[in-house]
Design goal:
Layout (H helix, E strand, L loop, with lengths): L1 E2 L4 H14 L3 H13 L3 H20 L9 E8 L5 H15 L24 E6 L4 E9 L1 H4 L3 E5 L5 H15 L7 E8 L2 H11 L11 H15 L14 E9 L6 E8 L6 E6 L4 E5 L4
Parallel strand pairs: 2-3, 6-7
Antiparallel strand pairs: 1-10, 2-4, 4-9, 5-8, 6-8, 9-10
Helix pairs in contact: 1-4, 2-3, 6-8
Bound molecules: iron/sulfur cluster.
Iron/sulfur cluster binds next to helix 5.
Length: 289
Amino acid sequence: MIIMPESWEDIVLRLLRAAQTRLPPDVKWALEAAAAWESDPTARSQLGAILDNSSRAEFLVRPMCQDTGLPVFFVKGRIPPGIEASIAAGVARATAAIPLRPNAVDPLSREVSGDNIGSGPLVHCRPSDADYTELSVLPKGAGAENMSRLAMLTPSDGDDVIKDFVTRTVLQAGGRPCPPTVVGVGIGGTADACMALAKEALLIPLDQENPDPRLRRLEEELFVALNSSGLGPMGLGGDTTVLGVRALAASCHTASLPVAVNLNCWAARRASVRVHSDGTVEYTQGAFP
Ligand code: SF4
């Protein structure tokens, strides 16, 4: 969808409203397909309740979960000056307008900031010479985010050790991240970069093929292994533990092999926009009215 220019603050509000109230089309399709294929009656009823809940959220234009998460942003391409301040202003407006639960607190005093910003917005920048700016938001609920894990594996560990770490992370999380989840996997970089990579992987639509054949095979093998585990929706058993596995890789030190897992719950909220150099605004990910 392409619309006329608007301010970054307006764009942030629009992204957050879409992400909070409407499932991205690929996630909705994956949930509907899972409900159709699921053989376990309890799992089918859980998936039915999830779909019913998201339809009501869309109809009422209200958040699909009481935990509206902490908004995490990725800015790619041209990085506009002052983008952090615009994001903060947009998040504060969205918190009041949608409304969103004020989740941001001081980590020690636990004092609530009230605006979902606190000490500053969570922004990852990926500058490039592209002639557009791409801004994405992932509202991250605590149930899924708390299950994030990093392993500093040894370089001689192969695919099987990576798969074992990812599988154990998802299965040990059980029902806490509200499965069926989307599993973001980061491989390489440094410890901090690897964690960000795992989160960035959650931005890749479920119906988009990974261009790297090694990562594609890893995603497919993990998808089959996790959905054969029997964990099921909400950890209550069934065939549908994950809706997808998305992986990204980056170069790392010859003596390192970092691997990170970041989960999105069934409410796999995300939305993206591209603002082109001529000022046109193109909403590229998420469901917009
Ligand atoms: S993990 Fe997701 S679905 Fe579960 S309570 Fe948190 S935000 Fe809601």
